[in-house]
């Protein structure tokens, strides 16, 4: 039976495991990491039976979750993690597993690298430890020499793993494990497997988006119900609703709290000023900032554009005739709406040049008046110096071709160009750029432009099958419900893309341009 060596000592193998990984791997555990090891390996003080069968760490990016999963996996492979009785002073004794089988699981092979690369690199620099413990570092797996034992990566796409006698598993980035990608099924299978041999699992997660049904979200709900054997460790800001992401004075104390000993201010490795810069980057989604850096779960950001920020930007002015502008065109012929949105290259002001919306009780044969649309295009080119006019050609191919032939620069280059909204990568990058520009305050609009504001406020995100150069998923926009028009929002996205292209090209106003038609 356990006899405490000092007041408040917990019956746990975690004290010895902590010393073991520090000695073998040459690392210094933070107080939080040591406390978690004590919790992971807590034992019943009478029977010596494990208390924790399913653990989870929720923490911000960079706090050290992946290395923690790696060194716990190493301890489970060769360390004193199995209860082997009590010593003469009443302290628990640990021994290694006779047949350890460790799995590092994720929904993709790249994600398993988060844990495995750290462990492989650490052991590769310590050949004397590998020799002492009988470790064979394979290309993607670790084996024990002369006795059973292995550590391997697994993914949701690897097929059925039911019945494997796994003694310990790391489940990495479970905020991205869903039913749709096989993550929920993989988690269930792993937990059944470790249960058969008295093993356990450790989940590494960032704060999940609420309502998505991820494994991370389901684990948090299990912890809230106080289900026996579930350990959930999460450090969250005391009052997350008071955090203003645009104000470092409220962000920094929250970061200091969630990063704890991992921050450089406390002798760790995380530069909080660098994190604040990332949070305030206009490309960082607010829900991502809360989830990845502040360790706070938020609902998914369904609205495509920051609507409150948009309302603050109603200070634009219509440019004078002859100024350099760009424009975007989007819409259908027989339903919804069609619109032209312009953008002033110099100021970033966007406005509706023309819009046609299907009336609520329009007859079945209602159609957008093509002649009026063409007249509005001619009027725009006659009034301003239009550098580019990006148009979604769907159902308007021949009309747009006629505009392209008619409106050319003095050297014969086309000023009208097709920009297909169903080419996911290009439209995804364009949508994200416009959203980022709104958050950064680079976009301005006319306060009385009701149609454009309504369409902007209607637009919701639609995930697309494309990623940017860094592997981040892209999105387009769609309607939240039938009848909620968004065509001017898409036209504004195209116009903003044209403005970015104009700035990148160093476009200048045509000095000889003279407005021809003024409305």
Outline:
This protein has 519 residues and is of the alpha/beta class. Helix content is 36%, strand content 19%.
General description of the model:
The chain has helices spanning about 15-25, 30-40, 65-80, 110-125, 125-135, 185-195, 215-225, 250-260, 270-280, 285-295, 305-310, 370-385, 395-405, 425-440, 450-460, 485-505, and strands spanning about 55-60, 80-85, 90-95, 100-105, 135, 140-145, 150-155, 170, 200-205, 230-235, 325-330, 335-345, 350-355, 385-390, 415-420, 445, 460-465, 475-480. The protein is α/β, with parallel strands linked by helices and about 525 residues long. β2 (about 80-85) and β3 (about 90-95) form a beta hairpin. It contains 16 helices and 18 strands. The protein has three domains: about 55-80 and about 90-235, 3-Layer(aba) Sandwich (Rossmann fold); about 240-295, no CATH class; about 305-505, Nucleotidyltransferase, domain 5. The strands form four sheets. It has an eight-stranded mixed β-sheet, sandwiched between helices. The protein has a six-stranded mixed β-sheet with strand order 15-14-11-12-13-16. The longest helix is centred in the last third of the chain and has 19 residues, at about 485-505. α8 packs across α9 and α14 (about 425-440) crosses α16. It is elongated, with a radius of gyration of 30 Å. About 35% of the residues lie in helices and about 20% in strands.
End-to-end distance: 93 Å
Specify the biggest β-sheet: 8 strands, mixed
| Tally of separate helices | 16
Q: Which architecture of the largest domain per CATH?
A: 2-Layer Sandwich
What is the domain total for the residues? 3
If strands are numbered along the chain, what order do they take across the biggest sheet? 5-6-7-4-8-9-1-10
Using the coordinates shown, work out and report the CATH topology of the largest domain. Answer: Nucleotidyltransferase, domain 5
- Topology, number of strands: 18
Fraction of residues in helix: 25-40%
Mean pLDDT across all residues, rounded?
92
Strand content: 15-25%
Low-confidence stretches: none
Structural class: alpha/beta
Oligomer category: single chain
CATH classification, class level of the largest domain: Alpha Beta
Shape: elongated
Give the radius of gyration. Answer: 30 Å
